[in-house]
Design goal:
The strands form two sheets. A six-stranded mixed sheet has the order 6-7-8-3-9-10, sandwiched between helices. A four-stranded antiparallel sheet has the order 2-1-4-5, with helices on one face. A hairpin with a 6-residue loop joins strand 1 (7-18) and strand 2 (25-36). The longest helix is centred in the C-terminal third of the chain and has 18 residues, at 179-196. The relative contact order is 0.18. It is 35% helix and 26% strand. Helix 3 (107-117) packs across helix 4 (124-133) and helix 5 runs parallel beside helix 6. The protein is an alpha/beta fold. It has helices spanning 51-58, 81-91, 107-117, 124-133, 149-161, 179-196, 207-210, 233-243, and strands at 7-18, 25-36, 40-44, 66-71, 74-75, 92-96, 167-171, 199-203, 215-220, 223-229. It has one domain (7-243): P-loop containing nucleotide triphosphate hydrolases (Rossmann fold), CATH 3.40.50. Bound molecules: adenosine-5'-triphosphate and magnesium ion (MG). Magnesium ion binds next to helix 1. GO terms for molecular function: ATP binding; ATP hydrolysis activity; transmembrane transporter activity. This is ABC transporter ATP-binding protein. Keywords: ATP-binding, Nucleotide-binding, Transport. Residues 9-246 form the ABC transporter domain. Pfam families: ABC_tran (PF00005).
Amino acid sequence: MTDHTSHAIRLRSVSRRYGAGDSAVTALDGVSLDFPRGTFTAVMGPSGSGKSTLLQCAAGLDRPTSGSVVVGGTELTGLSERRLTLLRRERVGFVFQAFNLLPSLTAAQNVALPLRLAGRRPSRSRVREALARVGLADRAGHRPTELSGGQQQRVALARALITRPEVLFGDEPTGALDTRTGREVLALLRSMVDGEGQTVVMVTHDPVAASCADRVVFLVDGRPAGELTGAGADAIATRVTRLEAAPC
Ligand SMILES: Nc1ncnc2c1ncn2[C@@H]1O[C@H](COP(=O)(O)OP(=O)(O)OP(=O)(O)O)[C@@H](O)[C@H]1O
Ligand SMILES: [Mg+2]
């Protein structure tokens, strides 16, 4: 019997091709990967290696051309648009490099948005609790322009987590932050994995950020190119340097 319980996400032979003919691009080329529950995985690789495409396929934001994606026991292949939308809304959380908060809404209103979109009336205490989790209980009434970059990303995290998703995906979530603020966001992600058993999958170009993860998965040309487990930033940086083509 297949065990669907230990893996939050399971990809089997996932390919994603864009376009056709001479201009066709293979962004993912037969990727098989498992993301165990309660673990923190970093995804690294050169620009254009397929990292964002991998995350979007794993999160149900994009459909693979072929292969299988299983999220918490649910096979995404063949799901109707409506079911896929529900899964995205309720079972995965996503944060981006650009925080993508709605500027006219307060922090609390931004955090409440996923529940409102799902037709639920978010209780004040649930929104307050989500903001408190990211250390922003005292900023509920502030609009994004009144918050620092790190605070905006923490609001985006609270918004991604309010539905209690099985997996939290981050596509370069610290990419737009200065070093210190980025570290705060990473510490928060780490504590969610350690304290609450959250599963986190994060794309990053930063070896220090990746060293916060339990495991680093490397991608090259849309294919897995090795992993490191429990590695420090130096070992990760060395591996990244080897994967990148020499510029001269
Ligand atoms: N919508 C699209 N149409 C055509 N090609 C695409 C599309 N999206 C991505 N690609 C191509 O797929 C490949 C992988 O893109 P992807 O965005 O996943 O890379 P990435 O590893 O996230 O890169 P980066 O580090 O620069 O963000 C690239 O060659 C890209 O040009
Ligand atoms: Mg990308």
